[in-house]
Structures are given as structure tokens and as C-alpha cells.
Amino acid sequence: MSLNAKGNDVGGSSKEEKLGLERETAVVGDPQVAQMETMNITKVLTELQAIQSQGPKKYCILGTRHCSFLHQQIVEMLAYALVLSGNHIYTSGAAGTNAAAIRGALRAFQPQLLTVVLPQSMSKQTPESQELLEDVTNLITMPQNDAMPLDVASRICNSHLLSETDHLISFAFHESNTVLEAAEEAKKLEMLVTLLYLD
Q1: Residue 189: which H helix or E strand, with range?
Q2: pTM, two decimal places
């Protein structure tokens, strides 16, 4: 029996019984354990299909300098396919992932759909990068960053790239701090982010 402040019976049943409410216990999992989503080839192909099925967009491709030849081939093929589909690719000039994106985009013979932004001046780039960049028509350099450490200049460069694009596709190891920071920044900008881990 339920009594009000004056001691009178107020119905004899709980609110839940009167309103017909049923309570369920929420299952929230263990907040101390990261819920890791496994990526399989089908899921990756589904995401890539979704990328291709949308209209032309501006994609930023960033990634680690230290990736295998196979990963470089995958990045090159992705950039090639995106440019052939009319998408604009933005990247930086580093070796590894970014160089593979440049090679793939150049293979599509649509130079107007590739923009490369360097974190520092051309003279700060490796001879291999300089040779690759000779064929890039939309090349932006940041010589004002020459006195900065490369990681600081790269963060500034990545922010500029993100400000110009709609979607970030990044290839990283769990220790690729600069690339992962760019992915976090892109999420804060409410961009679409596809982050593929190589380890």
C-alpha cells in the first residue's frame, strides 16, 4: 500500500504497475574494454564500393611512410580508380602511402584531379619525391614551414588538406601518430573518415 504525506492510501500499486511500464535492464558492456570491430575483406570492399557509388568528391589520402609494397599497390589502385571516377585526390608528398596515391592519380591521366600539398619547400623533399612531383600540375608548397621540425610542418599541412576535402582515407599503423591525429581532426570537422590499419 502506498500512502501520501497525509497518510491516505493513493492506490496501493507502484507507478510502473499503474502505467503498464516494463523495465528492462540496459546492457552496456564493459566500459573498460575497447570494443574492437574486426575488418575483413568483404567489409573493406563494401566501404570502397560506397565510396565509388557517390558522386565526385574531394578525397584526402594520407598515410604512413612505412608501408609494404602490397599496401602501396592497393593505395595506388584506389587513387587511380577514384580519379577515373571523376574524384579529386589531395595528398602530401611523403614516401609510402602518399607517393602511392600520387602515382595512382597520375596514371589516370587527369592531372587537374590531383593536388599535392607539401609541408615544406620543394628543396626539403627527397630526390625521389622531387622526381615524382615533376609531373604534378597542382602543387602547393609551404616554404614558411622550412625552419619547423617535419612533424610540426606535417600537422599544419594535414590541416590544410583536410580543410580542402570531403572525405579522409588514411592508412596507418597504431603508432602512426601524425596520421592518427589527422583522422581525429577530420572526425571533429565531421568529415567522412575511412581509417585502415596496416598492423
Answers
A1: none
A2: 0.72
